[in-house]
Amino acid sequence: MELPFCRCGCGEHVTKARNRFVWTHQSRGVHNPNHDKKASAETRRKMSEAHKGKRHYAWGKKLSEEHRRKISESERGKKLSEEHKRAIVRYQKGKPTSAITRQKMSEAAKGEGNPFYGRRHSAETRQKMSEAHWQDGRSFEPYGLEFNAILKLAIRERDGHTCQLCRAPENGRAHCCHHIDYDKTNNEPENLVALCASCHSRTNSNRDYWTTVF
After folding, report:
1. SS3 of the chain: helix, strand, coil, percent, to 5
2. Domains along the chain with CATH numbers
3. H or E element that contains 89
4. Which of 6, 95, 160, 197 could disulfide-link 22, Cβ–Cβ 3.0 to 4.6 Å?
5. pTM of the full predicted structure?
6. Which residues contact 156 (CB under 8 A, 6 or more apart)?
7. E strand or H helix at 181, and its extent?
């Protein structure tokens, strides 16, 4: 049974028959007249104050260890749908990470905060990871001579310098040119598609699925 289309007019199918919209799409276009409006500085200040101090019931509260454990157990094993992942990418695309956040991420990845810090994979593990990541040894095949900068630029221009999966535009970094059939010697334009680095890395696994998608 074919699922109904999202009511925002995006042309995508909803994930469940009972849903009216694809995740996050209910706030788009005519369904939300304030979609393209931005809050004024005064409104943003009032919103900020409303979430501080005594005016917000959760301000300054911390979850107990038991509460966090229950949340962790309830979320364990859940997998995000492909549409959910794409929506997260669209939401996060172009958002800069502050210096404070980068510092916290760096500290969390070091020392006692990360049990794997300082460890190295064995040669056997690296070999298994390589075999799992690159199927049939395809990554070691040479590219054809025609797969050059001129051809890559032509493909990116054809695709509007936009990732054909998440629709992210190039932002200071050229998108990759992906071989749809994973044959590096097949450099026909119809076998090439522009993808951002993030989406390109996703296509290295589950190749039959991505070949069908493109």
Report:
1. 45, 5, 50
2. 1-32 (no CATH), 138-213 (3.40.1800)
3. helix 82-92
4. 6
5. 0.38
6. 170, 174, 175, 177, 194
7. none
